[in-house]
Specification:
580 residues, alpha/beta, Methane Monooxygenase Hydroxylase, Chain G, domain 1, 4-stranded antiparallel β-sheet, EC 1.3.5.1
Length: 580
């Protein structure tokens, strides 16, 4: 089946909906959204704590301070042009969301409520500041609902439960996508002048993750398979506070409200690691501190593999009133009442700082020189602008999808309004159909679920919070073996309608690709910076490594990854040691 739209958005989370909404404001273009899920089930809805913006509603704040925290939090790998645009634009964007009807929590004077969050400071690092705008602990959910309502109102067309299988790129121009419709099993071709990728991250590469089952790096992988680069894939953030064993997120807002991390003796151990802002240090630092406590024998439980998040000193009305979802999570999944007992937590795979490289207007980059794939854009976690550098600051993910989703939507609509439809290649869907047929008709005995389990366990063991040459070299060999076994995967369900087994087998292929790019990039970077912590290279090396990694699959030599580099955009903030 064939469709034609001027602007086609892939993904209906916050970035995709923001892009679609702002593209639709250009009345000269038609806009459609393709989503793997029903839009309001997108993973943006799981974001809890808030969106950072220097509104100054509780105490004095300025966009320059937010920019500084973003750059410092990113361990100076953040592109400072992106950080400046972001810190300025997010203020206006939050007020726009408010005017759309987003039900922010409020101060007694009626202004948007703000609370403290990890890494956010005033006066360039002197003390913590209230910057996170929130809707109790359901901020992402409220953003998602608001943007979906606004997109429907604007007349955006939605194709829900469609799995994108291929990007149609020819002669450096994106011409559309190929997608599988779950309900019918049909393969559809979408012809477009501009395509915006907003499909989120790939946390399902790890065993313990806060990410939904749908976050499997699909479009990152498809981009990478075409010999196009993925940027800074070595930087993957582990959120400090996931429910022990499960990975379900406990928002940083819990610490923003006054929650304290404690080890087996009840010590507030973050006082030793970040004396100034303690439990509100950036996520990479807190995650490493937790792992150090566990490694040195100060963890809790039978296996001594978690620490506690203690809220018991806070009033019941704060815990239940401002943190209702995490209160329910603790009671439901652990049988723990956070009003009277601490919550067992451990770091959980949470957010990809790297992804498809883009300009500040969301244009997808062809290489490290800044050339673009015409008509192709990306925004949100799937993209690397690079706002987050080596470590994303808490709340900046929601801010990223709002600011850069909007910019991508505006830029794509402007491009489409002045462009003609580039002709589709003959049988544009051939590659996608061939992959479906390979999996359905394969006679190999390998099982996708078994390979996925081995991938997740080994990535967790070898490429997580702490890394070494030995563990990552081992993972390179494991990935080669898993990818070879993947060629022998076959599915038992040979039907086409709602063939979830087929889709999960395809998602495994995507996870293997992004894991390959991530592991090779991490093995190549011989320093520690932000979320990339190497025990064999413990220091940050600005002279040798203040640069972005660009990982290319070598199409002429399967299994080989070529690494090139792109300079960091510096500016008003010179690299300095990160001390909190």
């Amino acid at each position: 089946m064939h469709h034609r739209y001027d602007v086609l958005v892939v993904g209906a989370g916050g970035a995709g909906l923001m892009a679609a909404l702002y593209a639709s404001k250009n009345k000269n273009v038609s806009v459609a959204v393709l989503s793997k899920l029903y839009p309001t089930r997108s993973h943006t809805g799981a974001a809890q704590g808030g969106v950072g913006a220097a509104l100054g509603n509780v105490s004095e704040d300025h966009w320059e301070w937010h920019m500084f925290d973003t750059v410092k939090g990113g361990d100076y790998l953040t592109d400072q042009d992106a950080a400046e645009i972001f810190a300025k634009d997010i203020i206006e964007a939050v007020y726009e969301l408010e005017h759309m009807g987003l039900p922010f929590s409020r101060l007694p004077n009626g202004k948007i409520a703000q609370r403290k969050f990890g890494g956010h400071t005033k006066e360039f690092g002197k003390a913590a500041v209230e910057r996170a705008c929130y809707a109790v602990d359901r901020t992402g959910h409220m953003i998602l609902q608001t943007l979906y309502q606004q997109s429907v109102k604007a007349g955006v067309t939605f194709f829900n439960e469609y799995q994108v299988l291929d990007l149609i790129i020819e002669d450096g121009v994106c011409r559309g996508v190929v997608a599988y419709e779950l309900a019918t099993g049909e393969v559809h071709t979408y012809h477009a002048k501009a395509v915006i990728i907003a499909t989120g991250g790939y946390g399902r590469a790890f065993k313990v993750t806060s990410n939904a089952l749908s976050l499997t790096g699909d479009l990152m992988s498809i981009y990478y398979r075409k010999g196009l680069p993925l940027e800074d894939m070595e930087f993957y953030q582990f959120h400090p506070t996931g429910i022990a064993k499960m990975g379900i997120l406990i928002t940083e807002g819990a610490r923003g409200e006054g929650g304290i991390l404690r080890n087996d003796s009840g010590e507030r151990f973050m006082e030793r690691y970040a004396p100034t802002i303690k439990d509100l240090a950036p996520r990479d630092m807190v995650s490493r501190a937790i792992y150090m406590e566990i490694r040195e024998g100060r963890g809790l439980g039978k296996d001594k593999d978690y620490v506690n998040l203690d809220l018991t000193h806070l009033p019941r009305e704060i815990i239940e009133g401002r943190l209702p979802d995490i209160t329910d999570f603790a009671r439901t999944y652990l049988g723990v009442d956070p009003v009277t007992a601490p919550i067992p937590i451990q770091p959980t795979a949470h957010y990809a700082m790297g992804g498809i490289p883009t300009s500040i207007d969301g244009e997808a980059l062809l290489d490290e020189s800044g050339q673009t794939v015409r008509g192709l854009y990306a925004a949100g976690e799937v993209a690397c602008v690079s706002l987050h550098g080596a470590n994303r600051l808490g709340t900046n993910s929601l801010g990223d999808l709002i600011v850069f989703g909007r910019r991508a939507g505006v830029a794509a609509a402007k491009y489409a309004a002045g462009a003609e439809y580039a002709p589709l290649p003959v049988r544009a869907d051939a590659a996608a159909r061939a992959e479906i047929e390979r999996l359905k008709s394969g006679s190999g005995g390998e099982n996708a679920a078994k390979i996925r389990k081995e991938l997740q366990e080994t990535m967790m063991d070898n490429v997580s919070v702490f890394r070494t040459e030995e563990t990552m070299s081992r993972q390179v060999e494991i990935l080669k073996e898993l990818k070879e076994r993947y060629t022998r995967v076959s599915v038992q369900d040979t039907g086409m309608k709602y063939n979830t087994e087929l889709m999960e087998a395809m998602e495994l292929g995507y996870l293997l690709d992004v894991s390959e790019a991530m592991t090779y990039s991490a093995l190549n970077r011989k320093e520690s910076r932000g979320a990339h912590a190497r025990e064999d290279y413990p220091d940050r090396d600005d002279e040798g490594w203040l640069k972005h990694t660009m990982a290319f699959r070598d199409l002429a030599a399967p299994g080989k990854v070529n690494i090139r580099y792109k300079p960091v955009v510096l500016g008003r903030f010179e690299p300095k040691p990160r001390v909190y």
